C-alpha cells in the first residue's frame, strides 16, 4: 500500500502547534539570501574599498563554493549527531555560526577588503546551508505519510513567505526615518532583524517541534550516490530541460533583484523608496499567483510557463522608462512585473 493510501492516524500526528514551531525557522533561514542579493553589493560598493566588479566576482565565487559546501554539509549532518535529535543538534550548532557571519557581514568596518567580504560570506553560507538542509530533513523525517508531509511543507512554505516579507520591514522603517548614512543604517537594521528572529525561531523549534529518528520513518530507504543521481538525470531529458528552464528563470530574476538598489537609487532617484518598491513586488507576486494560475488553467504546464515568461519579458523594458523621481510610474511597473513572478515557481 502506498504512502498516499496509508495516512497516519490522527492520534499519531503531531499537534498543529508543534508543527508551527517546526516551521518557524524557515522565516529567517530562507530570508537571508534576499538582503545579500539585493542590498549587499550596493552597500559594499558605497564604502569605496572595492570596485563593483570585484564585489560581484567575490559573491559569485562564494555561490560556486556553496555547491561543494552543501554536499559536504549534507553528508556530515546525516552521519554525525545524537540519533533521534540529530536535526536539533545541527540547528543549535549552526545558529550561532550564522548569527556571527550575518553580524560581521552586515556591520563591517569602514573600509572592508575582499578577504573580509569573501570570508564572512563563506561563514554565512556554511551556517545557512547547515540550517537549511537540516531543517528540510527534519520535516521530512518527522512526517509519517504523504498527507502529513504535505501539511508540514505547507506550513514551512508559509513561514518562508512571511520571512521574505518581514525582512523588508526594517529597511523600510529606516528609509522612512531618513538617517544621515542610509546604507549603513539599513544594513544594521537588517542584521538586527536576523540576530533577533533567528535564535527566537530556532529556539522555539528546539523546544517544541517533534523529531523522530530517521530509522523509524516510513520512507527511510537506501540512499543513492551522487554518481547514480547524475546518471539518472542525464537519462531524463524532460527533467533536464525543466531544470534548465528553472535555472534560466532564477538567473533572470536574480539579475533584476541584484541590480534593483542601483536602479532605484541611481537611475530613478528613489533611494528612500527602494525597500517599499521591493515589498510591493513580492506582495503583488503572492497576491497574483492564484489569479494567474487560474488564468492558465487548462493549458499544459510548459505552455503556461512560456506565456508567463512572455508576460514578464513584455513588462521588463518598462523599468528603463521610469523617469527620475517618477514614483507612481515605478510602482506601476513593479506591480505589473510582480504579478506573474511567483506563478512559474508554483508551476
Your description of this structure?
This protein is mainly alpha-helical. The protein contains 17 helices and no strands. It has helices at 16-23, 26-31, 33-38, 40-46, 52-79, 86-106, 114-142, 146-166, 169-177, 182-208, 226-234, 237-258, 260-267, 274-295, 301-315, 327-338, 343-346.
Which blocks of ≥5 consecutive residues have pLDDT under 50? Answer: 1-6, 216-220
Form type: globular
Distance between the termini: 28 Å
Q: In angstroms, what is the radius of gyration?
A: 21 Å
**Binned strand content:** under 5%
Number of E strands: 0
The secondary structure category is mainly alpha
Q: Tell me about the largest β-sheet.
A: none
In DSSP terms (H or I, runs of 4 or more residues), the helix count works out at: 17
Topology (SSEs and partners):
Elements: H1 16-23, H2 26-31, H3 33-38, H4 40-46, H5 52-79, H6 86-106, H7 114-142, H8 146-166, H9 169-177, H10 182-208, H11 226-234, H12 237-258, H13 260-267, H14 274-295, H15 301-315, H16 327-338, H17 343-346
Brief summary:
By secondary structure, the chain is an all-alpha fold. Helices cover 73% and strands 0% of the residues.
Descriptive tags:
single chain; globular; disordered N terminus
Amino acid at each position: 500500500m502506498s504512502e498516499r493510501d496509508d495516512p497516519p492516524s490522527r492520534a499519531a500526528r503531531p499537534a498543529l502547534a508543534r508543527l508551527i514551531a517546526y516551521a518557524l525557522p524557515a522565516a529567517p533561514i530562507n530570508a537571508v539570501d534576499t538582503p545579500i542579493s539585493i542590498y549587499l553589493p550596493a552597500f559594499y560598493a558605497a564604502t569605496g574599498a572595492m570596485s563593483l566588479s570585484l564585489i560581484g566576482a567575490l559573491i559569485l565565487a562564494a555561490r560556486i563554493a556553496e555547491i561543494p559546501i552543501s554536499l559536504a554539509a549534507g553528508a556530515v549532518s546525516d552521519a554525525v549527531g545524537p540519533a533521534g535529535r540529530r536535526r536539533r543538534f545541527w540547528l543549535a550548532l549552526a545558529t550561532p555560526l550564522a548569527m556571527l557571519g550575518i553580524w560581521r557581514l552586515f556591520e563591517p568596518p569602514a573600509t572592508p577588503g575582499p578577504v573580509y567580504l569573501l570570508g564572512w560570506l563563506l561563514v554565512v553560507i556554511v551556517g545557512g546551508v547547515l540550517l537549511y538542509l537540516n531543517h528540510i530533513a527534519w520535516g521530512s523525517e518527522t512526517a509519517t505519510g504523504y498527507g502529513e508531509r504535505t501539511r508540514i511543507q505547507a506550513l514551512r512554505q508559509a513561514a518562508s513567505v512571511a520571512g521574505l516579507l518581514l525582512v523588508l520591514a526594517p529597511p523600510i522603517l529606516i528609509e522612512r526615518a531618513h538617517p544621515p548614512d542610509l546604507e549603513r543604517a539599513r544594513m544594521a537594521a537588517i542584521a538586527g532583524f536576523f540576530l533577533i528572529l533567528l535564535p527566537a525561531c530556532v529556539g522555539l523549534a528546539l523546544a517544541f517541534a517533534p523529531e523522530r529518528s530517521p530509522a523509524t520513518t516510513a520512507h527511510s530507504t537506501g540512499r543513492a550516490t551522487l554518481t547514480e543521481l547524475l546518471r539518472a538525470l542525464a537519462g531524463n531529458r524532460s527533467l533536464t530541460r525543466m531544470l534548465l528552464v528553472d535555472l534560466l528563470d532564477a538567473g533572470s530574476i536574480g539579475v533584476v533583484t541584484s541590480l534593483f538598489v542601483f536602479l532605484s537609487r541611481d537611475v530613478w532617484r528613489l533611494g528612500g523608496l527602494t525597500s517599499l518598491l521591493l515589498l510591493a513586488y513580492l506582495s503583488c507576486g503572492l497576491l497574483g499567483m492564484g489569479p494567474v494560475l487560474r488564468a492558465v488553467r487548462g493549458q499544459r504546464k510548459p505552455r503556461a510557463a512560456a506565456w508567463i515568461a512572455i508576460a514578464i519579458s513584455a513588462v521588463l523594458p518598462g523599468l528603463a522608462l521610469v523617469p527620475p523621481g517618477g514614483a507612481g510610474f515605478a510602482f506601476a511597473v513593479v506591480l505589473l512585473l510582480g504579478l506573474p513572478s511567483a506563478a512559474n515557481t508554483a508551476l
